[in-house]
Amino acid sequence: MGKRSNQRKNVALFDSDDEGSVSSSSTAMSELTVTPETEELYAGDKGLDQCLDALFEKRGSTREKALSLLIDGFANKLQHQFVENKCITLLNQCHNSIKRGSSKEINLASRVIGMLAITVGYEDTAAHEVLEESIVPFSQALKSGSDSLKISSILDCLAVITFVGGSDTEATERSMQIIWQFVNPKLGSNVVASKPNTTILTAAISAWTFLLTTMDGCNLNSKTWQESISYLSNLLDKDDRMLRIAAGEALAVIFEVGNLEKILDEAKGSSDSSMREKVIHLQGLKGKILNQVRNLSAEAGGKGLAKKDLNSQKNLFREILEFLEDGYGPETTIKIGADVLSIATWSQLIQVNFLKRFLGGGFVKHMQENIFLQDVFDFTPKKKNIANSDLYLSGTEKVRVNTPIE
């Protein structure tokens, strides 16, 4: 865990209230309701074992129901004992669902795989195996068909399992390249021939940005920065509001992680003519983006447009404008359970919002009890309940972790 935690240091966390969060969203990330009855069902492994058995059934509706219950089970409780014994079997059956299932089944199976990775995140080898075993079936599924729910669900899941199990920069870059091909299809052949629709494009940008937050900008070449900035800038002029929001978030993270101001300062003193041209190009791009962001932060809206979406856009681009002009990050104070935490950077905001959407109703539960997420976000709940169950750190070692009281 330690080797990745430095990339995600001092990240604050949201509670279950969505108010005030600024984010683009994938339609694949539907919220799930966890009831007291579900919590009682998953007090042990028997219910999960039955769900796993149901994934071998031929009837698609039976598998879909089982996957839905597994998602509830993983959201409502940390299933360490179950995944220690059944991780690979469950992963293989989810891969089978992605190969042969309906769009709904693929969506559910992708959610299960992502939550499986988050659950085993405390153990680097298992999380890395989930990622590596999923690359081939995911790549094959992404090449076949163009259903929005299917593609978006797989991209969301790929981002999550890479975030958890990507053991090095190369693994993260590999996933980012797969995802970027759905942002700009002409750059690769790992996508369907038709141009992705707005839903897929928005989901792809969101997933790509999420992984970008874990990268060291110094390791990415300037040509990549220029191409992505130019492409995303063009998307700010599109009609779809959620697409504009996703592109705006991506640009904010690029300017933050890429440290473009430092690149510009270093390039200004160079005698290389190509370097001077790069400076002029980047300065022009930044000027264009500033004007776009300024206009979007003051957009009046139009007939039939949701006021909430408009306000979200205006608030987001006001913060981006302040960041680009003055260097101030999106500072926000939020709560999770009884704790108050602060967000100070775009990377922090994107990471929290993405995981919150993916975990749905299980986000708070995992933040209060999931050792991996607590390590990633440097989060320690203050109030604890001594009666909490054991959480496994490895196959033989255990630690008593206490549940916060809300």
Automatic annotation (TrEMBL):
Annotated segments matching region Disordered: 1-33
Domain Interferon-related developmental regulator N-terminal: 24-325
Stretch forming the signal peptide: none
InterPro entries named in the record: ARM-like, ARM-type_fold, IFRD, Interferon-rel_develop_reg_N
Pfam families on file: IFRD (PF05004)
Family: Belongs to the IFRD family.
Protein name, UniProt field: Interferon-related developmental regulator N-terminal domain-containing protein
Top-level taxonomy: Eukaryota, Viridiplantae, Streptophyta, Embryophyta, Tracheophyta
